[in-house]
Design brief:
Number of helices: 13
CATH class of the largest domain: Alpha Beta
Order of helices and strands: HEHHHEHEHEEHEHEEHHHEEHEEEH
Mean pLDDT: 97
Strand order of the largest sheet: 2-8-7-6-5-3-4
Shape: globular
Radius of gyration: 22 Å
CATH topology of the largest domain: Aspartate Aminotransferase, domain 2
CATH architecture of the largest domain: 3-Layer(aba) Sandwich
Bound molecules: pyridoxal-5'-phosphate
Distance between the termini: 32 Å
Helix content: 25-40%
Number of domains: 2
Low-confidence stretches: none
Largest sheet: 7 strands, mixed
Structural class: alpha/beta
């Protein structure tokens, strides 16, 4: 594999034109789209329009005239196309953490008639916010949170399980669960499954209906390119929405925007029908506007084969990166954390090193190669197939090789810990 081979791969790449949707500084190699997606070109102008016209000129009239009230569902419908959900089943609102609280709470409520099921099972290395939310709900509702290594999870799916709560792609290792198999096993065992799609939406073909999952949530600012702190999304299987409606079950954050008639201003809560009840307070219009621009960049791949084509490119990028690291950085103390098996790999490559992982990432950033560090010893590189080129992979590995071979990362300034790693 040579540099020219990588340039040739870019020249043949049918998805290459999609990169022009983004403003990425020309000299930068951005391998952190799994943490904060790149800025779409359309976002700035669209936000200006919403700020100047819809907010500045039309002011409060825009709640009606500019479709602000419908924006959570409109953006939700677009996200639905990426996750195998149907129109009207997804809402864009709040944060991933808050949405997890809503759906996990609803799932526990649906299991209230089964007192033998007192367990929430998750992965020990799941993203901390997911574990903290589950821990707090378990304490409050009298459930046990049982944490296990990925390979031991199937053995915990039994008659004691209330809710299986997993993140499809592990943020740290990039390992991918078999969602269809686990959701089916949970369902057959009489349990519910809740899926966090934070590192999946926009890069992995997803089919929540085919998987017969029960609840799903995900993040707007990673591969959906919605901008820092973008609203997250939330999906509930329609069979639960119907049941909740029928049995008058509320979601726990019963705010006025999830009310059947918010502008009746009645003293008692009556949940809205369908997914609308999973809203809580006033929609974040600027955030939703930016999120819609971000989601549109992923939908723009539809004429090029859509998410399956993005997945194929993502695998080609991660395969190339792992291979070049193996070839160019052998004997440098790096080990591959992400599974070799491509059916078990998300859209990132994580490398571990006993010494200096944080400093190596800092030295790379100074050289214009942006990845990140995940404690205690992981160098993490995300490959957003919408805008990452094969030549970026080549150049990133070349910089990594230089940083390691020259020992540049040992300079004291690279060891200083910043707040965000
Ligand atoms: C990124 C991420 C989150 C982020 O949650 P916020 O509420 O947006 O801070 C949650 N869960 C997982 C698995 C993530 O990867």
């Amino acid at each position: 594999m040579t540099r020219d081979d990588c340039l040739a791969l870019d020249a043949q790449d049918p998805l290459a034109p999609l990169r022009a949707q983004f403003t990425i500084p020309p000299a930068l190699i951005y391998l952190d789209g799994n943490s904060l997606g790149a800025l779409p070109r359309a976002t700035g102008a669209r936000l200006r329009q919403v700020i100047d016209h819809e907010w500045g000129t039309d002011l409060i009239r825009s709640w009606n005239s500019a479709g602000w009230m419908e924006l959570p569902r409109k953006v939700g419908d677009k996200i639905a196309r990426l996750i195998g959900a149907r129109p009207g089943e997804v809402i864009a609102a709040d944060s991933t953490s808050v949405n997890l609280y809503k759906v996990l709470s609803a799932a526990l409520l649906l299991q209230r008639a089964n007192p033998g099921r007192r367990r929430i099972v998750s992965e020990r290395s799941n993203f901390p916010t997911d574990l903290y939310i589950a821990e707090s709900l378990a304490r409050e509702r009298g459930f046990d949170l049982v944490l296990a290594e990925a390979e031991n999870i199937p053995a915990l799916i039994d008659e004691r399980l209330a809710v299986l709560m997993l993140t499809e792609v592990n943020y740290r290792s990039g390992a991918l669960h078999d969602m269809a198999a686990l959701a089916l096993q949970a369902r057959q065992a009489g349990a519910l499954s809740v899926w966090d799609l934070a590192h999946s939406a926009g890069v992995l073909p997803l089919d929540l209906h085919a998987a017969q999952a029960d609840f799903a949530i995900g993040c707007g600012y990673k591969y959906l390119n919605g901008g820092p702190g973008a609203p997250a999304f939330l999906w509930v299987h329609p069979r639960h929405l119907e049941r909740m409606q029928h049995e008058d079950l509320w979601q726990p954050l019963a705010g006025w925007i999830g009310h059947a008639a918010p502008f009746e201003f009645t003293p008692h809560y009556v949940p809205a029908g369908g997914i609308a009840r999973y809203q809580c307070g006033t929609p974040q219009i600027l955030g939703l506007t930016a999120l819609e621009c971000g989601v549109d960049t992923v939908l723009a791949a539809e004429p090029f084969g859509g998410v399956p084509a993005l997945r194929a490119k993502s695998l080609a990028l991660t395969r190339l990166f792992a291979r070049l690291v193996d070839e160019c950085c052998a004997d440098q103390g790096l080990s591959l954390v992400t599974p070799q098996d491509e059916r078990r790999r998300g859209s990132q490559i994580s490398l571990a090193r006993d010494e200096g992982a944080y400093a190596i990432v800092q030295a790379l950033i100074e050289r214009g190669v942006i990845g990140d560090f995940r404690a205690p010893d992981v160098l993490r590189f995300g490959f957003a197939p919408l805008y990452t080129r094969f030549i970026d992979v080549w150049n990133a590995v070349e910089q990594l090789r230089q940083v390691l071979a020259g020992g540049f990362w040992r300079e004291a300034r690279f060891a200083e810990r910043r707040a965000v790693t």
